[in-house]
Amino acid sequence: MPTLETRISTGRPERYLRQFCSHATAMGSGGSARMRMHGTGQAAHDEVRVRVEATGTAATVHLEPWGHCTLRAETGALLVRIDAAETTALQRLRDTITRDLERFGRGELTVRWLSVTDPDA
């Protein structure tokens, strides 16, 4: 399972975690539904289903069948991990998540992904 991780320095990690989860929920049209493409009412052509599980400082966003994104707010940083079903799905998730987080940060957030060679590490 291909995996990427990033540690994003920010003074407001909980805010960005909540915003990302809220956005993912809206894109999924309310929890467990087909993902909508940005700015349209059309379903994504890959029929991705979105489900969000979140607490105050941690969340998992399931984007089935592509994979899932795990977020954790720590003091001074937002930790994000993507576990994907395969390489093409990883690229789609990476591009979508990067675009959303950088847009939410309005220039404050820099996302630099690192490949995880041993996902169990």
From TrEMBL:
Q: Which InterPro entries match?
A: UCP028291 (IPR014543)
Mind telling me which Gene3D superfamilies this protein's record contains? Answer: Alpha-D-phosphohexomutase, C-terminal domain
* Pfam families to which the protein is assigned, alphabetical: DUF2218
Give the domain of life. Bacteria
Task: Name it.
Answer: DUF2218 domain-containing protein
